[in-house]
Amino acid sequence: MPIQTENLHIDTLRPLPAPAALAASLPRDEAISRIVADSRAAIRTILAGRDGRLLVIAGPCSIHDPDAALDYAARLAELRHALADRLEIVMRVYFEKPRTTVGWKGLINDPHLDGSDRIEDGLPLARRLLLEINRMGLPAATEFLDPILPQYFADLIAWGAIGARTTESQIHRQLASGLSCPVGFKNGTDGGVQVALDAIRSAAGSHSFPAITTDGRAAIATTTGNDACHVVLRGGHGGPNYGAGHVAAVAEAAATAGIDPGIVIDASHANSGKDPARQSAVIADIAAQIRAGETRIRGVMLESNLVAGRQELVPGQTPVHGQSITDGCIGWEETRALLRDLAETAAGRLRIAA
């Protein structure tokens, strides 16, 4: 027998259903399809500066409890309806968590929160949750991390993010070029925006790369390019980058690169110094810029949950309902107040535009 040279570090290989099989068992209906399509179209016009409303991506750092996520979604759906003339509110529904070293990788990878890594349970759980959120009339946003997984749920996503750790990745730029939704590229972890601008230019072009079909077969995907990609400022090792000077510098760099400076600002992460309570100060600064006439800021992101802060999972102890187990978040009452403030800010911009 020849010496074995493959799968030397593979313990098991468990089958997954084909993406088409999962979609057939958990299909979207016409109403859900309309929510996704309409929100994508609205986001595109906002990012292009043709709609003076503000895009707001708000929700938990990560989803770990579907019941709490639906509780949050029901409240956010009410606000979306009430503020729709000024804000395009989309719920942050993040299923995958990039890890610097090790840790919980998200609901899809470890839905039982016990290290069992039952991805075959996580995928239908994630798709079912997205269907229920969209059924409330609330579109969903997520970060795309694994290049295979989007086939299972990207049809239910209105806006996608490529994270700071993966913006420089060719695989993720190729992925973004084929996604059907607008995609935000975050600046690098060092705070530099050039990698995001390069990513936008790359994702706008056509690419051919290995992929899987909806029936689970290996294939070569050739994309047409995604013209709805944009920069997301999230700060970096050097500090925050949401101020007026930062926005002007990004806009100048974007113009040099031939890119429309449709900027979304993440109020969390390095922009808040990883202190969730500082998100309100970031939003206040952004609102002041917009009231002063800044039109290149087209959207904001908030890490928000039912209960402020974060918690550790303790074996045998029931977690706090609606509190993050990853990055800390602001609570619901503060979220509601900030969204109403942002709506007033957007209303002023709309009056000027009229």
Automatic annotation (TrEMBL):
Record's keyword annotation contains Cell membrane: no
Record's keyword annotation contains Oxidoreductase: no
Gene3D superfamilies documented for this protein: Aldolase class I
Entry EC number(s): 2.5.1.54
Annotated pathway: Metabolic intermediate biosynthesis; chorismate biosynthesis; chorismate from D-erythrose 4-phosphate and phosphoenolpyruvate: step 1/7
UniProt entry keywords in alphabetical sequence: Amino-acid biosynthesis, Aromatic amino acid biosynthesis, Transferase
InterPro entries: Aldolase_TIM, DAHP1/KDSA, DAHP_synth_1
Record field: catalytic activity: D-erythrose 4-phosphate + phosphoenolpyruvate + H2O = 7-phospho-2-dehydro-3-deoxy-D-arabino-heptonate + phosphate
GO-annotated molecular function: 3-deoxy-7-phosphoheptulonate synthase activity
Segments forming domain DAHP synthetase I/KDSA: 45-338
Coiled-coil ranges from the UniProt annotation: none
Function: Stereospecific condensation of phosphoenolpyruvate (PEP) and D-erythrose-4-phosphate (E4P) giving rise to 3-deoxy-D-arabino-heptulosonate-7-phosphate (DAHP).
UniProt similarity note: Belongs to the class-I DAHP synthase family.
NCBIfam families given in the database record: aroFGH, PRK12755.1, PRK12756.1
Cited PANTHER family: PHOSPHO-2-DEHYDRO-3-DEOXYHEPTONATE ALDOLASE DAHP SYNTHETASE, PHOSPHO-2-DEHYDRO-3-DEOXYHEPTONATE ALDOLASE, TYROSINE-INHIBITED
Protein name: Phospho-2-dehydro-3-deoxyheptonate aldolase
Biological classification of the source: Bacteria, Pseudomonadati, Pseudomonadota, Alphaproteobacteria, Rhodobacterales
